[in-house]
Amino acid sequence: MKVSAAGVSVSIDGTPILDGVTLTAAAGSVTGLIGPNGSGKSTLLRCLYRIIRPQQGAVLIGEHDVWQVPARRAGLLRAVVAQDQELDNDYTVRDIVAMGRIPHQRLLERESATDRAVVDEALARVGIEWAQTRRFATLSGGERQRVLLARALAQGAPVLLLDEPTNHLDIGAQLELLDLIRDLGLTTIAALHDLDHAIAYCDAVVLLQHGRVVAAGEPAAVLTPQHLADVFGVRAAVTTHPLTGRPHLVFAAAAAVLLAEEHAS
Ligand code: ADP
Ligand code: MG
User: Fold this and answer.
1) Which part of the chain is the ABC transporter domain (predicted)?
2) By the 8 A CB rule, do 211 and 42 touch?
3) Separation of 107 CA from ligand 1 center, angstroms?
4) What global pTM score does this model have?
5) Ligand 1 and 17: CB distance under 6 A
6) Could you read off the pLDDT of 92-135 as tens digits, one per residue?
7) Domain boundaries in the chain?
């Protein structure tokens, strides 16, 4: 299902945070939200998943305006893995994944056989079924992220919204999680910090600065040395990744490049 935002603006206490953000994510594609700290990535995701109501503009999932449909219906449209989620220490892994079924259940309804089967499948999909009776609090960072992804999968929504899903993970766990996300085939919008991950895993990226879209489109067309200098204040060069043959970015602080140029001349 396609996701689109049109002219989304948000101010908090009179400070503009998002200013007329427009984007489209094609059905089944992976879109990266890129931008410096404070550029508005998390706020934009919160607008998409119905936590912050934009003062202007609209967010559509398929044909549905996420701010017009009932909350339960929104739960069937999109699933979320937010950042640093606080969860009660006593929940087991299975309890947490089972929470993904809530939008499918009536109030106080018991888990159905279908719910149980979907939870089993979600646990298996992310490879965490062995830990289902463990308390969530006892898991490593990478395991927790997989559990939260399993909860999102159990929700069965066609759209997945992720806020820095690889944060705090070691490099192996990062690549494993991104591979898994890519293979799901869902319409995915993810705030990402690592620009090489954006190139390797995203069909499109949206580059944000000060709550505005600077550029959007194919990763290699957006993550150009000029854009990276303008938005991140770094010198960047595009090389070829020695292992994958894909475009690969290397960076230097602007000052370091000046120094090297002085030495060379
Ligand atoms: P990012 O995820 O790109 O780092 P955020 O969306 O978290 O950026 O934040 C964008 C800007 O909005 C930042 O300047 C942040 O301080 C501000 N901001 C976000 N949420 C709030 C809030 N609840 N109250 C005040 N300012 C906020
Ligand atoms: Mg953020």
Assistant:
1) 3-235
2) no
3) 34
4) 0.93
5) yes
6) 999 999 999 998 988 778 889 999 999 999 999 999 999 999 99
7) 3-264
